[in-house]
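dumping this here so i dont lose it
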């Protein structure tokens, strides 16, 4: 039996490219959507095994669409598709129940392997970006204490980290030096028991800091 796939991307060239890329594989594209609204409608109609969902859509955030899809078609597994290797997107994808997260620049082999792994219930796969988050989460549990003693400045820095900004960009935004940013980040990671910036972004999303 082929793996039934719904492709959601607002760019026709991407949808056509994926159709070519997946030709000859065990994956069958059963429907295509260009908007979040159509994604939900077509997912309910076709009940695909896997949904490949763009992070950015013209009628809203693809990650918001993920939340709706998880509610409407909980048996469908969703892989986020993005141009951006952004810790915030990955953090939100984890928090909202995505099976995996792959980049548009990935190889044909990796994209097919990720879809097949997710369809088989083996996720996050070693080919997708969420494996990074999974590995971080295994290293040390994130503290769930609501009284984590972050200062106002540390909260500001954490929000910037979760938005995917570099140390230089954070420094420019908050008018502080890069060295001060690094010091704040080290303090934040220590206080919330996070191993890296991605895990800190996951924590920030779960705490509703964005």
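and the seq i came up w/
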């Amino acid at each position: 039996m082929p793996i039934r796939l719904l492709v959601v991307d607002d760019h026709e060239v991407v949808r056509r490219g994926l159709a070519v890329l997946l030709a000859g594989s065990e994956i069958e594209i059963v429907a295509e959507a260009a908007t979040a609204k159509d994604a939900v409608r077509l997912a309910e109609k076709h009940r695909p095994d896997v949904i490949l969902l763009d992070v950015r859509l013209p009628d809203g955030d693809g990650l918001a669409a993920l939340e709706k899809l998880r509610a409407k078609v909980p048996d469908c597994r969703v892989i986020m598709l993005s141009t951006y290797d952004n810790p915030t997107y990955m953090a939100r994808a984890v928090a909202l129940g995505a099976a995996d997260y792959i980049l548009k620049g990935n190889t044909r082999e990796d994209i097919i392997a990720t879809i097949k792994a997710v369809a088989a219930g083996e996720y996050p796969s070693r080919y997708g970006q969420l494996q990074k988050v999974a590995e971080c989460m295994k290293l040390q549990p994130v503290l769930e204490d609501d009284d984590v003693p972050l200062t106002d400045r540390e909260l500001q820095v954490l929000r910037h980290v979760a938005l995917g900004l570099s140390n230089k960009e954070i420094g420019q935004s908050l008018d502080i030096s890069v060295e001060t940013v690094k010091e704040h980040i080290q303090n934040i990671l220590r206080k919330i028991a996070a191993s890296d910036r991605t895990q800190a972004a996951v924590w920030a999303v779960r705490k509703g800091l964005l």
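The two ends are 42 Å apart (CA to CA).
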